Amino acid sequence: MSLVLRNVQRAIPLRRVPLRQRMEIVRSILGVQKFDLGIICVDNKSIQHINRIYREKNFPTDVLSFPFHENLKAGEIPQPDFPDDYNLGDIFLGVEYIFQQCKENEDYYDTLTVTATHGLCHLLGFTHSTEATWQEMFQKEKQVLEELGRRTGLRLQPLSRDLF
Q1: Which of 3, 58, 92, 109 has its CA 20 to 30 A from that of 16?
Q2: 161 in a domain, yes or no?
Q3: Over 80: is that where the pLDDT of 163 sits?
Q4: Domain annotation covers residue 157
Q5: How many structural domains are present in the chain?
């Protein structure tokens, strides 16, 4: 199925190909390449608006995930009954916010990859609301990013590494 990667912002120049290639590999690692996935790149104003509406938090953020299949257990692959249900959901990347948070020695596309992987884990039922669920999500992100590194040579760390 397809990975739809849309850039609907103009604040930060963005080449979609590197992110698309990496996220296709991440989908393969997670075993969800048969599912549709939307990744939408937005600016601070848009991500703040979405964050305010859906989370009642009136500030920009790095990533918001909206699962198609709700109430999945962490790491559970959906088992759709109908072809139209082969959809994981949508990830909104606050690319302007991510760019502003990048440290001097960090590659922007590496950070986008890590953030999108984090968002994809949320679509698969992972959360970080408690230390136990954070640990589970951290381990999954670490495993996926290590495998991505084996396949591409990248050395990436999980987004959730400093939460608890």
Answers
A1: 58
A2: no
A3: no
A4: no
A5: 1
Instruction: Decide: residue 15, CB within 10 A, 0-12 exposed, 13-18 middle, 19+ buried.
Output: exposed
pLDDT tens digit string along 45-89?
999 999 999 999 999 999 999 999 999 999 999 999 999 999 999
- Sequence-distant (≥ 6) Cβ neighbours of residue 109 within 8 angstroms: 15, 18, 19, 22
Helices within 9-130 (DSSP H only): 16-30, 44-55, 95-101, 108-123
The CATH number linked to 57 is 3.40.390.30
Nearest Cα to Cα of residue 121 among 88, 150, 93: 88
pTM score, two decimals?
0.96
Separation CA 75–CA 59 (nearest Å) = 29
